[in-house]
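BACKBONE GEOMETRY TOKENS:
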Amino acid sequence: MVGVVVIAFVAFWAYVFFIAPSAPEDKLNDASFPRAAQPVCTNALDDLRAANLLNQPATSPGQRADLVERSDARLKSMVQQLRSLTPANADDGHAVSGWLDDWDQWLSDRATWVTKLRAGQDVSFDEKARDNGEPNSKALVAFAITNEMPACVTPFGI
């Protein structure tokens, strides 16, 4: 009987440590922020679509810079709106603030890109890499997906 209990105990902890999926990092404890953020992001995407800024070809670096600046102005407004919704709960507030700081960094990287485009350099977007070498946008997308805010991922085609 004791042997069965010991085996069950070991099996349980082996499952917990080695097999069970880990809880996603930055999963918010309270779903209030995602519920409030999703419509804000949806409105921003709708505005980008209505302004015909998504998936637009550019024939010159200057034209690309114009499209990026117009898109980013709307995204900056979105981030400001989301900041006003930051949860008061310390853990969730910290996670959301970090995510919004990542948005600020992504938009700053795009501003640097615009400067290069305006100088006539036909270069692709080069965003800051995180400590693990992955692009910042990957963390932005992961947080949005983990917290069920699909409209809050970095938009494609801008």
